[in-house]
Structure formats: C-alpha cells, structure tokens
Fold this sequence. Notes:
With 478 residues, the protein is of the alpha/beta class. The protein is built from 17 helices and 13 strands. The strands form five sheets. A four-stranded mixed beta sheet has the order 1-2-3-4. Strands 5-6-9 form a three-stranded antiparallel beta sheet. Strands 7-8 form a two-stranded antiparallel ribbon. Helix 11 packs across helix 12 (347-357), helix 13 (392-408) crosses helix 15 and helix 13 (392-408) runs antiparallel to helix 17 (461-476).
Amino acid sequence: MIRTRIAPSPTGLLHIGTARTALFNYLYAKSQGGQFILRIEDTDQARSTQEFEQNIVTGLEWLGLHPDEGITTSGSKGDFGPYRQSERTELYRPYLEQLIVSGAAYWDTTPLEEIAQQKEQAQQAKRPFVYRPECREQQNEYRDGAVLRFKVQDEVIWFEDKIKGKIEFDMSLMGDFTLSKGWDNPLYNFVVVIDDELMKITHIIRGEDHISNTPKQIVINRALEFSRKTFAHLPLILAPDRSKMSKRHGAVSIDQYRQEGYLPEALVNYFALLGWNEGNDREEYSLEELIQKFTLKRVQKSGAVFNIDKLQSVNASYIKALPLEQKITSGVQFLSQNRYNIQHLAQDQLERAIDLECQRIKTFGDIGEGIDFLFKDPVYDSNILLWKDMSISDVKENLEWVRQVVYNIEEKTSKEIEQTVKAEIQQDNRKPGCVLWPLRVALSGKERSPSPFEILTILDKPTALNRIDTALKLLSER
C-alpha cells in the first residue's frame, strides 16, 4: 500500500510551503488508494511549542487534509506511533548500535575548532573540504562529547526522482556526516530514515530544498538494510519575479489567510495549481476532483510562481458559488469582525446585502467596504451627483422626478425594479444616465457602488426617499 507523510517541525505557524507539500502527499496517497500520515518532528525542543503544533494540525484539518494516521486535533491515531519524534527517542539507539557494529558509523571526538581549522586550510588551498578523520577506522567506543558519524564511501549514489528524473551524487565530495550527538541526541537525517521505515512510508514527497539530504538518507537506509524508498521533490514556490517568497508576496501563515476571509476550498484549489496541472486550462477543482486527476507525472520541474491576484480571483469564484446559507453565516461573522453595525438592517435586508456583496468581494475580509452605506447614512461631496455636463438644476429636476418613481415602486427584485424604472425613463423621454447616476449616488454616496436597482432591494422605501431628499438639499445649498 502507498503510504505518504508530512513531517513538519512545530517551530512556526503552518505556512503555504508546508500546506502545499501536505496537499501533494495527500493527493498522491488518496489517488493511489493509499494512506496519508502526519508526523511531528519536534526534536528541536528550544524552538518547538505546543501552540505551533496545534496550529499546524488544525490548519491542515481546516484545509480538509485529514490524516489517516498520526497527530489529529482529537489526539493520535494509528499503529505505528508515537507520532511525535520527541516521544520516539528510545527507538533510535538500537539502530545507532547496529551502524557501529557493522562498521558504517564511528565515534568522533575531534574538537570542533580543529575541524574548523581544517576547513579553513582547505579553503585557502582552494580545494574541497571533505572531512574524513583517521579515527573513522578505529573509534567504536563512546567517549564523553563524542558525535557519531556515518562513514561515507567513494561512490556515486543515484535515485530516480518521480518528478525530476535521475539525480546523481558523487559521494567522494561529501565528508563523514553526523548521525547523533552522543547516544541521546540523534539528528534529522538519521531519525527521519528510522521513522519512515518503522511507519512503513513508501513515498517521500517533499520540497526540492531537501534534495541535498537525500543521498545521506539513502546510504543510511541501505546500511540498515531497510526497504528502498521512492522520492519526489516538488518545485519551490517563487515570488512573481521568481525570487524567494516573502511575506510581501503572500508567504504568510494559513491562519492569516483564514483570518482574512479566504475559503479553505479555494486555497486547496490554488495550492494544487502551484506546480501541477492536468494538462489543460482548467483552473477550478474540488478536493475530490483533484484526487481523481492528480499524478506526479504532471508536476512541473521548475519553480511554481505564486500570484496573490490569481489566488484572490479563485477565492472570489468560490465565494460567489457558496450556498446562500454559508454566505450569510460567513458574511455576518466578518461584518461583525469589521465592526459594521449590522443591527441597522432587518434580517432580510442584511441577507440581501450580504448576497449582493458576495458577488463582488475577493475575500470575506473585504465584506462591507462596497456597501458600508447600507449600515449608515452616507456623507459625500455634492459634486459627485453631477452626471457629465449636467447643470445643478437638471440634476435636481431628475432627482425630484425619480423620487416619485421610487415612491410608487412596489416591485421586489432588482430585475423588476430595473424594468419599472427604465420603462418610466423611456416613457418620459429622459436620458438614463441623467437619472440613474444621481439616483445611485444619492442612495450610496459613492461614485462606484452597486446599481440603484440592487440598492433599492435592500434599503426600505422611507430610507431611500430620505436619502434622495438629502441629495436635493445638498444641491439646493450650492
């Protein structure tokens, strides 16, 4: 059975790189009828926190990436735990001993200062520094302060990456690397090999920044006679100028995207397109559709460019497509969060306002900006009431005329109101712009806003008439 894993370190909030890697692991496992495991690599006790772990776990589940095994919001589950590296320390020593007995590893007590001096000498001589001390052939007993090193051989290591193809490493250029500091402080490249074997991981799908770790893990894996693993290294996520991602480009936590009103379905959809495509121009997929379509063969080799405008466009489409009930729930939440006085509107008015705004916003965090005039009387400069070269008297005359039309309206929907008003305009031989521009401004106080017909479906008639009267008063005071 295919088994993939995501193994983040809880030293920070869940960010888009880890989320995208988790998604690709999830999609591949599910597309192959396999299992997805969440393991926490928390051996960096100085920086790891329970709060960061909780943020990672809840963030992945919010995105819909629920692990089959490992750490969940309700606790650990699975037969291959513990799933926190800090709780697995006792499992590692037998494998350290095995490497020593087999001659694949040795204890090194060379002072760090001496190693640094050797490195500096190599640099001055302009030759590669390959650390392989004399003690590698004789030091098999632990001494205080010793580190356990893997004995690297002169050979070429290669593996067939499922994304990048064949990758080779000349190990003669690599020095003996550290497996553990003493018995009780095993390091990343060692413990990850043990954990992947004991948890029966078959495919290791991760960012291409881990490629340099792969030869070390391969030789450790081979020395312990573990099953061969399949590797796939994902392209890095790049800024629009193809530089390293930063916060100003959108490299923020998943939690922040959530707080700003992005939908998890939209984020999953967009993250999937960061380095993968089906081979066509399609841009919208549900998680279930992604599982059906996903294949590592369609993952690109080069960097994936992150475009915040594209993400917002995808999110806007998902907001528009939400069922009305979900629009109302999220809309009320974010309007309150943005401190709009939603008590100003009756429930049916509030629901129509939210539905209207959801056709325009890119995130729920934006809600209210385009319809703030619904929650309070607008304040504006009377100059924006003027349409093109209309005189003040012409604007007043058209507003007085359309006030009567509004007074007589009995229709309920935006389309019905539009048909009625436009029919009256045509019958009275008026120019639509000369009537509709000042009407819309009078109702909204904005040069850009929803149409007057949409606004009239939300504002009650007395409020609408009062705002037209206010506009007429402003014009009279000029």
